[in-house]
Amino acid sequence: MQDKEFDDRIKYALSNYPSAVPADMWDRITAKKKRRRFGFLLFLLPGILLVGAGAMYYFTQNGDTARKRNLLNENDAIKPSVNTDRTQLSNDNAIAPAEIKTNLQETAAGTLSSNKKIKTANTRNKKKKARTASAHPSSLQTDAGAANIAVATSPNDKISDSTKISTPATEDHKTVKPGSTSTQEITPTEAADEKFALELFVSPQAPFNHISADDKTYQQALQSAGSMQLSYTAGARISYAITKKLFVKIGAQYSQLNEKIDYKDSQGNSFQSMNHYKTVSVPLLISYRIITTENFRLHATTGTVLNIVSRYQGIIPSAFGQPIDLQTHDVYNKNVSASFYLSVDISRKMNRRNDLFIEPWFSYRLKNMVNSNYSFDQRIHSMGLSLGWRYRLFRNNDHQF
Amino acid sequence: MTEKEIITGCIKKNAVCQRLLFDQYSRKLMTLCLRYARTAPDAEDMLQESFIKIFSAIHQYRFEGSFEGWIKRVTVSVCLRKLQESKIRFDDVSALESTKHALHPDVIDSLSEKELMQLISSMPDGYRVVFNLSVMEGYTHDEIAALLNIEAVTSRSQLMKARRWLQKKILANQKITVKHAG
Fold first, then answer.
1. Contact call for B47 and A32, based on CB within 8 A
2. Which of residues 105 through 134 in chain B touch A, CB cutoff 8 A?
3. How many whole angstroms separate alpha carbon A151 and alpha carbon A159?
4. Closest partner residue to B48 among A10, A14, A25, by Cβ?
5. pLDDT tens digit sequence for B15-63
6. SS3 assignment, position A296
7. How does DSSP classify residue A341?
8. Taking the mean position of all CA atoms in its chain, how far away is CA A134?
9. In this predicted structure, what is the pLDDT of residue A176?
10. CATH number for the segment(s) B3-85
11. How far off is chain A from B102, nearest CA to CA, in Å?
């Protein structure tokens, strides 16, 4: 037999060979399709972390021009003489009460004579600063609100300035004494520090199930079959300061809601399951700083958490009591739309770069999550307590004054 | 529902149309996968991957040429990728395979489809893949060489050896059958 004939006979013999396909093949295909779609979106989370890490590297290595600009403005305001003592300025959070009395006499020829009487408490550095300030009275005016300046001008083109400057509890760069708890302004330096920040958080949460159905018996069966369990959310956000007090935040978060199912059908068969509702979402938040102290910040945050994809595992009872497998039946929508988010965030400043924060929050699901083919509505709202770390993204060499 | 409507539905990710497409072609594609796979579970994995690939790439089908030909090509590419994950070896199994065996045409007809499938599945990887691509799918040696990243001459020699291997096995099978009958 020739090769060609052999090939043809083999091909013909197998041309209509019907192989048996496993009965669950379709379910396996649909399950794997879902897993792939979900798995792809799970890359969002490490993606955001990578972007965050990249941004962190960029800001620590390449610098922040906005911050530099702020520093320049700051230096202009406190005059060049202060530059020699910048370390002192930045490190001293408080200067003891000082009273400065200055008499300035300026002749018609433009000569300037000044009698300075400076009373300061304690340190030489503070005296130095006060002397510098008296030599440049205009610079002190930049510390508006901190100094009271009285000016008396004599006639005959002779300018006689009698300036009395008192600086009660002078605050260097408008910061307060350590331990102070009063509200205060944010300095340009701090504002530049807080321009970008990366936030990582994890949150235990308590979900609340809201179920309704036209068939009240079925509604009751669903409600009694399930009890929500302790659940969790974890995620990462990038925070951007629009102003000194207003921030926008975007990120990615993963949530797993747990529900224990335990019920019996009409024939007494018992069904038990731990259902998992897994979601990947993108929070779009706006945050307002309410209180600022030396070490603490209080923000109110609101916005929406947009669900990107959801995946469900477990069972729920059908209207006839039979268990419906959530993996093989599209009971719930893949995308359950948005949730309204509200939180208060209290953060403790650990150092210039790092904060720790706790954030009690509430999330209200805006839309029914059940597929329209099923005869009930369900929304799962949640409240939780995020514990997080905020890392400010600015370059290191801004510390080198 | 016509085939075009089913395909159009699948492009729109309609689950009903996807199921219809699966029902229509799953058995044929399972046969194809069994020919390439070493074991039945491997073939099932290939079939599963193939349908996922078909559903995700079906928008690339331009309604030109046979749709069955298109999905078979997709399935073959999935099978080859799966096999290449564990490296297909194109080595000589035995020098005896170069010897031509005298085989009567009726011998092949006497084998059941299942027996023939089992023989093909038990072929060494390189033989089986080239034999399937050339004899069953009708690819040229140049096409096979491009698909498998080998030389065309390697493809030719693997095909020749695959034929001899199969003929030898069929003869051996026939002898056993005759022995049992005797």
1. no
2. 105, 108-109, 111, 113-114, 116-117, 120, 134
3. 10
4. A25
5. 899 999 999 999 999 999 999 998 889 899 999 999 999 998 898 888 8
6. strand
7. E
8. 44
9. 41
10. 1.10.1740.10
11. 7
* CATH tag, A26-64+195-399: 2.40.160.20
ipTM of the complex model? 0.82
The pLDDT of residue B91 is 64
Residues from chain A contacting residue B156 (CB–CB below 8 Å) = none
**Strand A112-120 vs strand A196-213: parallel, antiparallel, or unpaired?**
unpaired
What pLDDT was estimated at residue B179?
A: 57
Residue among B47, B108, B167 minimizing CB distance to A13: B108
* Residues of A in Cβ contact (< 8 Å) with B110: none
Q: Count CA atoms closer than 13 A to B102's CA, side-chain side.
A: 0
Task: Please report, to the nearest 10 degrees, the dihedral formed by the alpha carbons of residues A219, A223, A228, A233 taken in order.
Answer: 10
Q: Round to whole Å and give the CA distance between A129 and A85.
A: 8
Does B93 reach chain A within 8 Å, measured CB to CB?
Answer: no
Chain A CB contacts of B111 under 8 Å are 13
CA distance B87 to chain A (A): 25
Supply the DSSP string of A61-117, one letter for each residue.
HH--HHHHHHHHHHHHHT-HHHHTTHHHHHH------EEEEEEEEE-TTS-EEEEEE
Q: For residues A165 and A132, is the Cβ–Cβ distance under 8 A?
A: no
Beta carbons of A19 and B30 less than 8 Å apart: yes
Whole-angstrom distance, CA of residue B118 vs CA of residue B135: 17
Segments making up each domain of chain B, as ranges: 3-85, 95-181
User: In B, which residues are within 8 Å of A19 by CB distance?
Assistant: 27, 30-31, 34, 43, 117
The answer to whether A9 contacts chain B (CB < 8 Å) is yes
Is A17 in CB contact (< 8 Å) with chain B? yes
On whether the pTM is more than 0.80, the answer is no
Q: Domain-by-domain residue ranges, chain A?
A: 26-64+195-399, 81-174
**Hey, is B155 helix, strand or coil?**
helix
A329: closest CA of chain B, how far (Å): 12
Chain A residues with CB inside 8 Å of B121's CB? none
Per-residue pLDDT of chain A (401 residues), as tens digits, is 678 888 888 888 887 777 888 888 998 888 877 666 555 555 555 666 666 666 656 655 554 555 555 555 555 554 444 444 444 444 444 444 444 344 444 434 443 444 444 344 444 444 444 444 444 444 444 443 433 333 433 444 444 444 444 444 444 444 444 444 444 555 666 666 778 999 999 999 999 999 988 777 888 888 889 999 999 999 999 999 998 889 999 999 999 999 999 888 777 778 888 999 999 999 999 999 998 888 888 999 999 999 988 889 888 888 777 788 887 778 888 877 789 999 999 999 888 889 999 999 999 998 888 887 777 889 999 999 999 999 988 766 544 43
Q: Do A36 and B52 touch (CB under 8 A)?
A: yes
d(CA A371, CA A373): 5
The half-sphere exposure of B116 on its side-chain side, counting CA atoms within 13 A, is 23
Class of domain B95-181: mainly alpha
Mean pLDDT (chain B, rounded): 84
| Tokens 């990249």 -> residue | A54
Contact list, B108 vs chain A (CB under 8 Å):
6, 9-10, 13
